[in-house]
Design brief:
This protein has 102 residues and is mainly β. It is 0% helix and 48% strand. It has no helices and 10 strands. It has a 4-stranded antiparallel beta sheet with strand order 4-5-8-9, with no helix packed on it. A two-stranded antiparallel ribbon has the order 1-10. It is globular, with a radius of gyration of 12 Å. The chain starts with a strand and ends with a strand.
Amino acid sequence: VVLMKNNIGYLCVSGGQLQTAPSVTKDCDWKVTSAGFMMFSFENAKNGGFMKATDSNIVIGPAGNDSVFEVKFNPNGSVSFQSTVSNVFVGIKDPEMFLEMA
C-alpha cells in the first residue's frame, strides 16, 4: 500500500471522487497492482474503487482497460502516471507524484 503526494496534497477518495487532502487519512491508501511492464492500476484500499481515466479526468470506478497507467520518471525524482487509453495523468492539476509507503 502506498500514498501518493504532489504539491497540492495527498490523493484520496472522498464521496466516491478523487480529491486531495493536506494530510494523510485512511482514504489516501492505494493498493498498487502491476498491469504489465511499467504499467499499474491503483485501487483505493478503504473504498475499493479504482482510478480510471476519461478523456479529460481521473474518476473512481470499477477496474477496466481505462484503469491502467504507465509510469514516467521525472528529473526531480518524482513519477507521473499517464493513462494507457487517453493522455490524462493522475494528479489533479499536478501530475508529479511522490510515493510514500503507507
